[in-house]
Structures are given as C-alpha cells and as structure tokens.
Amino acid sequence: MNEFERRLAARQDELDWLYMELYDDRPRLEELKAMMARTRTRRSQALRRLDRKREADPDWFRSGGMLGVTMYPGLFAGTLRGVEERLGYLQEQGITYLHLMPLLKMPHPDNDGGYAVEDFNRVDPSLGSNEDLSHLTAAMRRRGMSLCLDFVINHTADTHEWARRAKAGEREYMDRYICFDSPDIPREMEKTIPDVFPETAPGSFLYVEEMGKYVCSSFHPYQWDLNYRNPAVFNDMVESMLHLANLGVEVLRIDAVPYLWKEVGTSCRNLPQVHTIMRMIRLITECVCPAVILKGEVVMAPRELAPYFGTAEKPECHLLYNASTMATQWSALASGDARQLKRQLDDLHSLPGHCCFVNYLRCHDDIGWGLNEEYGRSIGIDPVAHKRYLYEFFEGSFPGSFARGERYNYNPATQDARTCGTAASLCGIEKGLSEGDEAQTAMGIRRDLMMHAAMMCMGGFPMLSSGDEIGQLNGYGYHDDPDLREDSRNLHRTRFDWDSAALRTRAGTVQQRIWDGLRQLEQLRARLPVFGPGARVSTWDAHSRAVLVIVRRTEEDTLACLFNFSGQTQEVRLDGPEGPFTDLVSGQTGLPPVLEPYQYCLLAREA
Fold first, then answer.
1. Which member of 297, 416, 468, 469 is catalytic?
2. Is 297 annotated in the active site?
C-alpha cells in the first residue's frame, strides 16, 4: 500500500459518506477518487518529501518564526519572474509565507482585482506562465518560504469557458450555475440575501439575455455563482485546487467560503452544506497533498467563525482571517478605548486549541466596521454613531483626526461605510509628512509600530501588507484612471515603491524607523518560546480603558505585552503576577508606572 492509498484508506469511509449524503451519486464519487489518484501520481518527488515532512510536523504554520506578507505580484515586481528576483528582499524582511493576490487567468479590465477567474488552471499571461509559478515555488522552498494563492471557489468570470458555453445554450454548463427561467424565485431569495456591494452592485441576480435566464451573481455582474448542488462542479473545482498544489502552492486561500450553498428563505450564508464541502476538501487534500493547508476567507461575525475550523476530530480550515479584530483594533486607535478589543480577544483566545487565526492590520480590501454592537451598547457606545465616527475619522474629515483615507461602499440608507487606506496613512504619517511636521510624523510612526506590535502578539499568525514595512502611503493616482476610479480600494492597491524601500537602511528616515521597529518585533517572535504553538494567550486588566494587555505563557515563561491606544500618558496597574519584568523593546527593567502615548512594552517576567 503506497502513501496515497494509506491516507485514503484512513479517510475513505467519511469521504464516501459525506459525498453520498450531499450528492447521492456513486459514479461521480468514483470519478473523484480516480482523479485524486491521478493527481497524486503527478506530484513531484520534492513535493512528496514536503508532504512527509509536514505530516510529521502538522503545526508547522503555528511557529513563532512564521511571518506572512500579502501583495499583488504585478504591483510588487511586474511578473512572477520579477517576484522570484525579489525573494532576497523578502528574506531580509524575515518572510516565511508569501500570499500573492489572484494571478489566474482573468478578463481585463473588469476582474474585481483578479477575483473574476476565467481559467482556474492557468496563470494570467500578463504575470507569466504555469512554469514560472512552479519555478517560483521551488525557489521559495529553498529559502524556507511557503506560497499562498487564492482559490475563488464561489464563482467564475462570465467569460469562463463554462459561462460561455452556458450562454451558447449547452444545458450541461447552464447546470453549473444557479439559474432560473423566471424572476419569481430570485425575487424571493433577494428578500433574505444581504447585498455584498449595495452601492455598486445591488441585488444577487441578473438577467442574461443570451440564456434567457436569471443567474445568481452575489458579487459583481461579471461574476457568476457556481451551483454546488451539481457534483460535477465540486469535482472539477477540486481538481483545479489539486493542480495548483502540484505547482507547489502550499496554502490555498479559499475565497468567499460562507456563500457556497444557496437556499430559498435563508441568507444564503453559513449553511450546513458549506461545512460538508469544506470537510470533504480537507479530507481530499490530506490524502493527495498533506503539505497543503487551507485558509478560509470567512468575513462574518465572530460567533460565526468557529464552525469553519470544524472540530479537533473533524477539522475543516487550518486558518481563518481575523477580520473583526482588524476592525476593532482600528476602532480602538481612533477612540483611545481598547475595551471592545480586549473583549473580542478574550472570546477568540477561548476557542479550542485547533483554531488558528491570521492576524493583520491591512489587506487588499477595505476595513469593514463589523464591531460587536451588543457589547458596544453595554459600555455606552451607539453602534450607528460610532461607525459614522470611524469612517469620518479615518477619511480625515472628523475634527482633530490624524488619519488620511477614503470611504468605500457608502450606503445612505443605513449610513454604513467602509474605510480604505494604507496603515501608514491611517496612522498619521501621511499627514505629518505632507505638513512638514516631524513631531506629527514621529507620532504617526509610534502609532504604526504599536498597532503592528499588538497584531503580532495576539494568538495566531501575523501577516503584513506589502509596503507597510516601509510606511508606504496612499496612492491617489487611481482617481485619474477610468478603469480604477470607481473603486476606492485602489487607494492602497498601488505599485510597490522600490525607491522608498532603498531608504530602509538610511538612518533617521521614516522607512528605516518602521523597518527596524518591525524587524525587532519579528525577531523576538522567532526567538521566544512564548510565541510557539504551545503557548497560552489571554489578557490582563490594566485598569485603563486605553491600555490593552496581552499575556503569552508557557510552563516556564510569561510575557506581558502592553499597548497604549491613546495619545495621552496612561498609568498602568496589572492584575497579573508582580514583576520584576524586563521590557524586551527598550531593555528597561521594572514595570513602568506609566505608558507614554502609543507606547508598547513586551515585559518578560524575570525568574
């Protein structure tokens, strides 16, 4: 019995049961397993060795030495070959995990940043070829780096071969999408389905004249939702995932996971069948390519996140995005009040040990202000007024704001909006530089480093946004581009500034101060056992609503991480064990009686 047969034998009963429960189609199940065997046969010896290594160390991605960065390959280095040529820069930064934004073949210009895919098995020619991708992943493995790619599982571009053949009237391909002959069912479904983009793409269905049918389109009109009631869709999409794994992709970011199953009379989010699909994908990858892990994009309320990890006995995703904490952290910075952030971290840190989040300050998308409204009300925060305050504060229109950003997806009916901008601009560095005010700029750098430090000390996996390591600012040129100007997310989707990156070694520059501050934090994470997979993470009370205290502990060590989210000096009184402590950031000994504005300390308890 070979390795694949051994792995499948251990999982086959569950896989068969789940597939038949969902599809009741034995021939399609046998086709799936035959495809899995073929794909395993094509897997290179180098990747098979990696499979065995990762099976022996299943928590490899939880190491304190793991550090991620996300970027658009075209904006960073032009092409995949260009990215490969720049791996030395990423290695200097300490990157071990590189998330390249969507790079599979897409229509131009309408592709939603690459999330409208017209060929799941081919790299977009503007970025390179499949051979370039395979060459890049091999070069990364030699440097101890893992590649993450998006897999857009919920929908295709309307230029995908399946969509073109559906438009041509082929019933087999119409059945791969969610289609209706009349508007009756779509209208009924739209009563309970929330709009994803209420301002720019309201509604969840569109009429396609070529087909004479109403087609489900949750996101943009040029993105058609797939019909996962059809086992042919599941089988073919899984085959494309495994194809990417055989090109050396080690992390698959599964896009828009909660949307995969649609039912009349529901929100069409988070339905039980979604978990069946994700559990099957986990079983399949464990059989064919156990080196690969699954990262779910589940941008939902915190209470809806935990089910996507599955259970310790029957897991689904290895990693999930911590989008809610990103928003709550920026809220704490704007308000100088960390109480909601502390409450949220307590909830997340109380989840079972197999749950692991990707923590980040910024990403390719907006900041959606999905805060815990119930808890907010309990501490006197009006949810609607606070949201309005936040997006006005971070666009710089609120009096006294230090931030520079822009609104995204404003809904006048609900007064809801999201926020765009780079971390440096949102933290006040852009304002200080534009006004030639060194004191403002220095304070912006303090905010920026404090925010990154808090993110890196939370339980989970830290991921940077490319350019944040050098304090890259907003790019306003998109306003002049007719293909980009309607989407304010392009404010922070800008070309990487290599001239600014060169300043990271020049003493006193903004780039050097941010780079060195982040490298100190990254090196502490890699060195200290309290950042390892076995550490326990919780919070302490500092008796100041502006100060967050994250505590990381092993049997031997305790690290108390303090963060002042306000622009005022704060007195600190910890409820945890008494010192003495040494601050690993400044080297000072003893618990500081006060924290300066936006100061952070990593206090190691001395034996």
1. 297
2. yes
